[in-house]
Specification:
Elements lengths: L2 H33 L5 H9 L2 H20 L4 H38 L18 H24 L3 H32 L32 H7 L11 H24 L5 H26 L12
Helix pairs in contact: 1-9, 2-4, 2-8, 3-4, 3-5, 3-6, 4-5, 6-9, 7-8, 7-9, 8-9
Protein name: Phosphatase PAP2 family protein
Organism: Lactococcus hircilactis
Keywords: Membrane, Transmembrane, Transmembrane helix
């Protein structure tokens, strides 16, 4: 993407963000009341499985570290810590994702059993309590499959490509980490009630412009939307420019769909979703630019858009 295209994309994103937040400022509650459907399978499926980019960017980065450590195994003082770190990161993040999806799946099952709306779930805490045996079986099953697929793909890379992927993995991990920290900090500070937490009188509703302080409520901004937008980061790992472009478009579309699903399921207001999407996209942009600058320090920054 050249500098002209970047500027156009930035201005389009900025105008879109301002326009959507303007609408949300006056009609947040009305939009939510119109779209909410706690029985939506669309919203429930995204709620259950949608945060996969947050976890699996870490997992993929860990797998790349494993492959690189194996290639450099003769230098064990470097390879051993890298191997342990990559293994721990990928294994632990797989477990975290397993815990999340099992928790939501058990809640869906419980809701159906008790004739409740399928999408009713507490987004701020684990709502189901899967057994230890089930968690371990699913966790290790997912990890083994992911490891086989990732290592098969990485085994076909030459040393230069693998070195590049390791570099990408570091910045991809940073993008996720910064996005998580910004999202969690704002959630705590804003203390906004979620749509499903409002009483019939809606007396708890506050505009997104009004932070409430730490009170245990975490609607603003949307964590799931942040996670969905991070799908864009997977495009960084592609070797082909065409594939990279397709993954980028898919990532944007995935983030938008996940955001819409959060409004429908009653977990977030429009402003929660819009702000989260554009904030995360901005963080992704900053980290990507930092990557391009540091990748080739001998070239002027203006030329880095054409690597």
């Amino acid at each position: 993407m050249n500098s002209t295209t970047k500027k156009k994309t930035f201005y389009i994103a900025l105008i879109s963000c301002i326009f959507l937040l303007f609408i949300a400022t006056f009609w947040d509650l009305q939009i939510s009341e119109t779209l909410i459907n706690y029985n939506s399978w669309f919203g429930t499926i995204f709620q259950t499985f949608g945060e996969i980019p947050v976890y699996f960017i870490f997992v993929l980065s860990g797998q790349i570290a494993l492959a690189y450590a194996f290639r450099k195994r003769n230098d064990w003082l470097f390879a051993l810590p890298l191997f342990i770190g990559g293994f721990s990161l990928s294994l632990w993040q797989t477990k975290a994702y397993t815990n999340e999806i099992l928790s939501y799946l058990l809640t869906i099952s419980s809701n159906l059993e008790h004739h409740k709306a399928i999408g009713l779930a507490n987004s701020d805490a684990n709502v189901g309590n899967p057994s230890l045996l089930l968690t371990i079986m699913v966790w290790l099953g997912i990890y083994i499959v992911v490891t086989i697929l990732a290592q098969t793909w990485l085994s076909r890379k030459d040393e230069k490509s693998l070195h590049h992927l390791l570099y990408v993995a570091v910045f991809a991990t940073l993008a996720v980490w910064f996005s998580l920290q910004a999202n969690l900090a704002l959630k705590d500070f804003w203390g906004r009630f979620r749509p499903y937490e409002l009483s019939a009188s809606h007396k708890e509703f506050t505009s997104w412009l009004h932070p409430n302080g730490i009170n245990g409520h975490k609607s603003f901004p949307s964590g799931h939307t942040m996670a969905g937008t991070l799908m864009i980061v997977f495009s960084w790992f592609a070797s082909s420019q065409l594939i990279r472009k397709k993954l980028w478009i898919f990532g944007v579309a995935y983030g938008v769909l996940l955001g819409i699903s959060r409004i429908i399921i009653g977990a977030h207001f429009t402003s929660d979703v819009v702000f989260s999407f554009f904030l995360t996209a901005f963080i992704i942009y900053i980290v990507n630019e930092l990557y391009l600058v540091l990748k080739d320090k001998t070239r002027p920054i203006a030329d880095l858009s054409n690597p």
